[in-house]
Amino acid sequence: MKTRDVIVILDCGSQYTQLIARRIRELRVFSEILPWDAPVEEIRSRSPKGIVISGSPMSVTIPGAPTLPRDFLEIGVPILGICYGMQLLSFLLGGKVERAEAAEYGRAQVEVEDEGSPLFRDLPQRFCVWMSHGDSVAWLPPHVRVLAKSEGGLPAAIGVPEKRIWGLQFHPEVVHTTYGVEILKNFLFEICGCDPSWDLGDWVKEKVDEIAKTVGDGSVLSALSGGVDSTVAAVLTRRAIGDRLHCVFVNNGLLRLNEAESVLSVYRQELNLNVQYVDASEEFLTALQGITDPEGKRKAVGETFIRVFEREAKRIGRTEWLLQGTLYPDVIESGHRGRGASVIKTHHNVGGLPKDMKFKLLEPLRDLFKDEVRAIGAILGVPNTILRRHPFPGPGLAVRCLGEVTREKLELLRRADAIFLEELDSAGFYDKVWQAFCVLLPVKSVGVMGDERTYGHPVVLRAIESQDGMTADWAYLDRQLLDKVARRICNEVKGINRVVLDLTSKPPATIEWE
Ligand code: XMP
Known about the structure:
alpha/beta, Rossmann fold, nine-stranded mixed sheet, five-stranded parallel sheet, globular, binds xanthosine-5'-monophosphate
């Protein structure tokens, strides 16, 4: 691989750590997140051009809070502490951090005091920033300069220019900080001397060579789901090893309306993938019979998948490698397990594969964020129909068809869902929301159509906005759109006579109902 500049981000547990990494990559510098307690040798092994220390929900003054060894400051490359990161640097430089009399949260103004500082080059003297801290720097030794102050007179930026150590009390990675990108640019290019050369086109070429070399003359098995990650991973791998990639696409009978047919046609006709199609709907629906408990349904689907996949793998014959569409956020989360710094999401994707299948794992996307995977998909010619698809849970409609899953209820749900998505798309909302879908409730209510009394199922419309699925807010949809969706569903789907709207964020709810 050609050498590229790297910025290491030490994660002290902030909700914004991944955002810092993304912003830096958007500026075409590769960034890698390591946990705050990564040994100094591990950090050095990345040969970083600079280091960023993230924020944290903790307080520097509390025992057990993330910290760094004092010799960290001698690491010899520029360091930027953000929020907690600045407080930690102040503390390590001999300053005092205290609980602030008035915490600063949200939008605030800062005033630059040291206009010569490279961090604020070409910026106005006053600008808007995003603050989120309860502690603040109360005292600094004389060799640490205060570069900017907040309206409350607290240090908003600090620096020890001769040691190339810098700190920001606010969050430059958040869009509400007006000149956040400019500040990050100044850090990357003026201070660290990075070259903006991280390029996804080069990444594809390098990755294809790497896969070819890794797999040699072996062969690879892949389970395709129709989603972005597994598809992009497969198309990339196919480029490297051609028909030695064997794909399996299992129709579990829990897919959306016409999904199996349309996805399969894209795979075979447009992407030229070598796909074994398995219609196992019957087997899945039988396994789900009589189960109403959400976890029970997930388990039944997971176990059936393993059985079906194992059977197909045997049919294909010997393959040493198993391809998985693992992404960077999953890698970070597993890497941090046990370090106590960040919130851990149990990710549902993997885990479900047979233990006694002796595969070596091929995970070509493990460096990438979702939006980067989409961009790479576009470079590889993956059609937009797949790239723009909303996330879809592994257990499919089983977790959206509440109560016992039956063929009849799935049919109602599928048709209502298709109407919702079709209208959402034609109103221009599909790409604006993170996810939208229908949920069929296992109760019935009374209605009237024409002169007839009806007794049918209600369907719930769920549309949410999110950055990563870990937290979410309900999406504000146009009234006319909602009205049209509700009328069409009741008119066109016999068996549904009521449409309701889910107005719950995550937390307290989850995105899926089960
Ligand atoms: P929840 O419901 O936990 O969902 O708020 C968060 C995101 O994950 C998706 N999801 C899944 N994805 N397998 C998956 O690949 C699953 O079992 C699964 N369950 C939930 C969900 O659609 C949302 O985007």
